[in-house]
Amino acid sequence: MDSKLVVISVGGSIISPDSVDIGFLSKLYKALKRYLEEDSQRKVVLVCGGGAPARVYQNAYKAVAPKADDSLADWIGIKATHLNGTLVRSIFEEFCTDPLVVDPTGEIGFEGQVLVAAGWKPGFSTDTDAVYLAKRFGGKLVINLSNIKKVYTDDPKKNPDARPLDTVTWDDFCRMVGSEWVPGKSTPFDPIASPIAKDAGIKVICSDGRNVDNTMNILYGRPFEGTVIG
């Protein structure tokens, strides 16, 4: 295990909820810059989701195409992650000397302190890419940043009795989210990534990525708001 390495899955919903959230990206950049400059051995992998560009273009495809194909809808979402990933990689260029990673199983260098990745292929979200990269580089923690503060026992928008969880086992979480992937599906963590993380002994922390101070609390090992899976 590389205790100096952490993988952060940055949901597209916080990079580009409707349009690019410049305020969020600016705050994240400044906070991570301080974190990395404090210790040159620290390494961060940032895996970027698709957000609004994925949603807008997938919806356009489904509205126009006579028979929408899930695989093609996935590819549209993947290309949106490449756009967001290219933006984030450009922002962190001083720390990121390697190209954008679009295949976590391919040839990858990690010369700088930051590595930026995006979507790979249909069948899962960028959460799965994050788990693959954690396994590859010996990381045992994936921080999953989205627009929710905690994992709930059920969808709180549909079930008023849904309760927030501080911790949940992988077995219980997998039962909650199922095992099927649908392009654009919204779950606290990808159902395809979950059993892979479980088998690899990787812990996932789900938290509200818009709260950058909370994210830094996780990185520094301080008290934080979120849900620990694993």
Write the topology of this structure.
Blueprint: E1 5-10, H1 12-15, H2 22-38, E2 43-48, H3 51-64, H4 70-91, E3 114-117, H5 126-137, E4 141-146, E5 151-152, E6 164-165, E7 167-168, H6 170-177, H7 193-200, E8 203-208, H8 212-219, E9 227-229
Parallel strand pairs: 1-2, 1-4, 2-3, 4-8, 7-9
Antiparallel strand pairs: 5-6, 8-9
Alpha-carbon distance between the two ends: 16 Å
The CATH class assignment is Alpha Beta
Low-confidence stretches at least 5 residues in length (pLDDT < 50)?
A: none
Over the alpha carbons, how many angstroms does the gyration radius reach?
Answer: 17 Å
Number of helices: 8
Mean pLDDT: 92
Helices and strands: which structural class? alpha/beta
Percent of residues in helices comes to 40-55%
Give the percentage of residues in beta strands: 15-25%
Anisotropy-based shape = globular
As for the CATH topology, it is: Carbamate kinase
Helix-strand pattern, N to C?
Answer: EHHEHHEHEEEEHHEHE
Assembly state:
single chain
Number of domains: 1
Number of strands: 9
Major β-sheet profile: 7 strands, mixed
CATH evolutionary superfamily: Acetylglutamate kinase-like
CATH structural architecture: 3-Layer(aba) Sandwich
Major sheet strand order: 3-2-1-4-8-9-7
